[in-house]
Structures are given as C-alpha cells and as structure tokens.
Amino acid sequence: MNDEIFDSLLESVKQADGIIQGKLKASRTKTFAEPEVKAIRAKTGLSQVRFANVIGVSKRTLENWEQGRRHPTGPAKALLKILDADPHYALKTLSG
C-alpha cells in the first residue's frame, strides 16, 4: 500500500472516530421508514393471532408494533418487508 492510500484511510478512520465521539457531524445520514405493521397484516387478511404465529412472535409483540410502542428489528423487519412486497407468496412459503 502506498503512502497516499494509507494517509487517506487513516484520515477516514479519524473522521469516523470523531463522529462516534460526537466531535464531528456526519456529512450525510440515511434513515429508513418503520414498516407499517398493521397495514402489512391487513394485506394478508390474517387476524393478529394467526399473523403473529406465522411470523413467529407473540400476539403481544405484534400489538406493540401495531400501536407504535415498539418497532421490529433485524430478521422480523426483513420478514415484514417481504410480506409487504408479496403477501400471497410469502404466506405460501411460510406455511410450507
């Protein structure tokens, strides 16, 4: 690695550290909308109990998502995105 590339990478690391420590502001940020869980469930036509069972969460968790008290994360968020895009095929696949 030549000195120019190394210096550029080192500067990037220093900037990232400054952002993490709150000393610098990020030049750009990306935000993603939270999934509209109730609307996604409505697309499937399932009750809360059945929808919760299909996606592998408790009814209480689903209620919290639908009422905005909590938000899905990780795999649950990805699964909801798939259900939103193609509810028929997603349900067919999840049902086996």
TrEMBL record:
Positions of the HTH cro/C1-type domain: 37-90
Keywords tagged on the record: DNA-binding, Transcription, Transcription regulation
Keyword Transport: no
Domain of life: Bacteria
Family matches, as SMART domains: HTH_XRE (SM00530)
Alphabetical list of Pfam families matching this protein: HTH_3
Entry-linked InterPro entries: Cro/C1-type_HTH, HTH-type_reg/antitoxin, Lambda_DNA-bd_dom_sf
PANTHER family: ANTITOXIN MQSA, MERR FAMILY BACTERIAL REGULATORY PROTEIN
Protein name as it appears in the record: Helix-turn-helix domain-containing protein
